[in-house]
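in:
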């Protein structure tokens, strides 16, 4: 009677799909106990052994599935749950009895008179058949783990039953378990993506420093030349510059389009890398949002909030643009192997995207070993033959036209390779060929590992390697594809060479790793999903992160301590029973904590003052164009290399720009005036004062004692020199 009142109350409060249990645990004789000892194994274990695709096909073919009663091993009676009479999900709950272990102990084990209950759920669909009597097994196969989630998410699957020991003492009262709906999990992915977009835009605005060095200046100048028709394909016609940046057309060609629409300024210059950064996160979000929303959320956070990805979003460097092209190519390869339709189209797309990545940067070659290994594997298995034929054929055609173009322009089909070799030879005093040969052994042994830890990727590697033993029902090839691509690419960075003629490993800089980040972050997202769905390995991961924090001697250790605290908190809330894995709140807590830790470093740099004062300097030059008056402007050694950018690469004809230290060698003709443009932020930038700038702002002003202040904007000052220059 009480149960009926309880059911009616739940119906009245908007819980129409609660499944009511049978009477619980009645006394039985020796014969029943003997049958219970022969109870079949858990439905959950059997479901795990079936591939997801096979279980989905079986589920589509068998729309009607009932519920069977499952005996409790070594207990006093069977426990089953009857479905609702009119529709509702078909549910089975198996109760496993063991020792105290928070539901994880082996079944059929008792210690110290305590009983621990573990619940295993398998589900059917609405409109099922009547379940079979006498506890006989049903013919339909249980669905796999991921299908159970999609079938039961959001429905209350248990309703207030009691568990008693044979003596009749009350032990446990189980109310209800709510599994998250697909829409709830997708909402987690949507919120994570929205947070990444907002933080990326905020970082772009509040940390923008203008031009960084020569590379982005050259790319911007090539874009301006391309817009005005003065860009020369092939080598410099004057023979003065052999620049490999000149051949990365997809870096500056879109910038030329931005110049045509928005004009030449620093925002239009860096709009393309910003869009590429957001595009990489958007691609991961769109690719996994429906199928694996937790993977989508984790991958977007781990990739989009990685500090060096954000750092490259407001500089015209090829790395984030190349990352987008590499990720698009890898996603195309993965999607083509998942789908049987349109193999010719997928193959052609793969070839086009790899060529696009090559036109961004040469590091796409680190994907080649994985491509080759996957091709050989499919060849042996006789799979995806039409796809590989289309990819190889399209790639051969595109590469042939590309080499023919260089043959026509430079009379050297391998011009780009020879240009890279020439660059390596020119810079050999600073690389591992000559200047750093003593450090070569350390470079190919332990330095890459310390470098990955120091750049904040230790957490990503930990989760990715932890996914080698998945703890949920994800198809193995789904995560192993990304992990295989990530590890093979990492091997290329670790042991590969930038030269074909001599062994010279790539320089260990964070921006060089952008092609490695997407596959590692996706593989790590699968490992993170396992943690959020099962709650397992949280303590193990936390201990490993504390070890990484101890190994790292930089400020990045704060991140490892933060991630360890997040995983420790997940373990604590599960142990205390405040939150349970496989719930939206548990997943949201983990994602929020990881995202907040990732945001620490970007938020810190957003709060710091500018180290270049680019926008203040640009405002001063616009307010005082200094033309048409003829004269000379003395600037620092950093600005002298890119000052024409502030004038749209067309500086006033009457102005000359000279370095501070050239003051004694610059004669002033009649009618000319001299100016001093002083940027105190640049002259105090540690990255510049260590090598390039050997003087301070005050010492530079002391060279011009007779001066008059014309304008000041923050740390930028403009003076007119009124008397002779000392």
């Amino acid at each position: 009677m009480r149960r009926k009142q309880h059911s009616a109350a739940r119906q009245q409060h908007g819980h129409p799909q609660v499944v009511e249990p049978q009477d619980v645990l009645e006394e039985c004789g020796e014969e029943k106990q003997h049958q219970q000892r022969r109870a079949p194994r858990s439905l959950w274990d059997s479901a795990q052994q079936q591939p997801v695709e096979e279980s989905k096909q079986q589920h589509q073919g068998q729309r009607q599935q009932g519920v069977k009663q499952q005996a409790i091993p070594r207990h006093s009676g069977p426990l089953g749950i009857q479905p609702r009479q009119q529709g509702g999900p078909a549910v089975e709950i198996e109760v496993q009895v063991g020792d105290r272990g928070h539901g994880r102990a082996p079944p059929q084990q008792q210690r110290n008179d305590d009983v621990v209950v573990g619940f295993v759920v398998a589900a059917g669909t609405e409109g099922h058949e009547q379940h079979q009597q006498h506890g006989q097994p049903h013919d339909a196969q249980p669905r796999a783990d991921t299908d159970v989630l999609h079938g039961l998410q959001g429905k209350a699957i248990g309703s207030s039953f009691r568990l008693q020991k044979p003596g009749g003492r009350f032990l446990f009262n189980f109310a209800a378990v709510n599994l998250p709906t697909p829409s709830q999990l997708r909402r987690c992915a949507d919120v994570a993506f929205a947070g990444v977009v907002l933080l990326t835009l905020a970082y772009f605005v509040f940390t923008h420093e203008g031009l960084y060095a020569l590379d982005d200046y050259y790319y911007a100048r090539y874009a301006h030349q391309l817009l005005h028709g003065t860009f020369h394909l092939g080598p410099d016609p004057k023979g003065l510059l052999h620049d490999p940046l000149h051949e990365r057309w997809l870096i500056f060609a879109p910038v030329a389009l931005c110049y045509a629409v928005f004009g030449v300024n620093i925002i239009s210059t860096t709009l393309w890398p910003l869009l590429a950064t957001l595009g990489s996160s958007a691609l991961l979000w769109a690719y996994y949002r429906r199928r694996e929303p937790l993977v989508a959320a984790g991958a977007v956070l781990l990739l989009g909030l990685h500090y060096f990805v954000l750092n490259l979003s407001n500089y015209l460097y090829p790395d984030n643009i190349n990352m987008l092209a590499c990720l698009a190519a890898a996603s195309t390869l993965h999607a083509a192997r998942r789908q049987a339709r349109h193999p010719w189209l997928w193959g052609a797309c793969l070839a086009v995207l790899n060529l696009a990545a090559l036109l961004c940067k040469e590091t796409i070659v680190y994907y080649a070993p994985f491509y080759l290994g996957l091709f050989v594997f499919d060849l042996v298995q006789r799979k995806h033959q039409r796809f590989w034929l289309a990819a190889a054929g399209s790639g051969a055609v595109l590469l042939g036209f590309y080499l023919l173009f260089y043959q026509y322009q430079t009379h050297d089909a391998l011009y780009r390779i020879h240009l890279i070799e020439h660059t390596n030879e020119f810079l050999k005093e600073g690389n591992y060929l000559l200047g750093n040969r003593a450090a070569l052994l350390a470079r190919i042994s332990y330095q890459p590992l310390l470098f990955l830890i120091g750049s904040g990727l230790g957490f990503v590697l930990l989760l990715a390697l932890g996914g080698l033993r998945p703890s949920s029902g994800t198809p193995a090839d789904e995560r192993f594809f990304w992990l295989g691509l990530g590890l093979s690419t990492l091997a290329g960075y670790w042991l590969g060479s930038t030269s074909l003629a001599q062994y010279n490993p790539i320089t260990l800089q964070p921006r060089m790793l952008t092609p490695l980040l997407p596959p590692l972050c996706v593989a790590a997202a699968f490992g993170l999903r396992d943690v959020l769905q099962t709650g397992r390995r949280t303590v193990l991961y936390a201990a490993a992160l504390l070890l990484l924090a101890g190994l790292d001697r930089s400020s990045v250790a704060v991140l490892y301590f933060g991630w360890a605290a997040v995983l420790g908190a997940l373990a604590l809330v599960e142990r205390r029973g405040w939150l349970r894995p496989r719930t939206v709140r548990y997943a949201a807590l983990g994602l929020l904590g990881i995202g907040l830790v990732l945001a620490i470093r970007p938020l810190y740099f957003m709060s710091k003052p500018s180290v270049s004062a680019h926008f203040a300097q640009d405002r001063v030059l616009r307010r005082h164009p200094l033309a048409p008056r003829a004269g000379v402007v003395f600037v620092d050694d950093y600005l002298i290399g890119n000052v024409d950018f502030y004038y749209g690469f067309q500086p006033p004809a009457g102005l000359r720009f000279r370095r501070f230290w050239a003051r004694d060698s610059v004669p002033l003709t009649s009618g000319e005036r001299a100016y001093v443009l002083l940027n105190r932020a640049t002259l105090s930038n540690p990255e510049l004062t260590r090598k390039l700038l050997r003087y301070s702002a005050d010492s530079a002003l002391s060279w011009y004692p007779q001066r008059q202040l014309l304008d000041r904007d923050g740390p930028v000052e403009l003076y007119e020199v009124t008397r002779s220059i000392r």
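note: The chain has three domains: 2-178, 183-607, 614-721.
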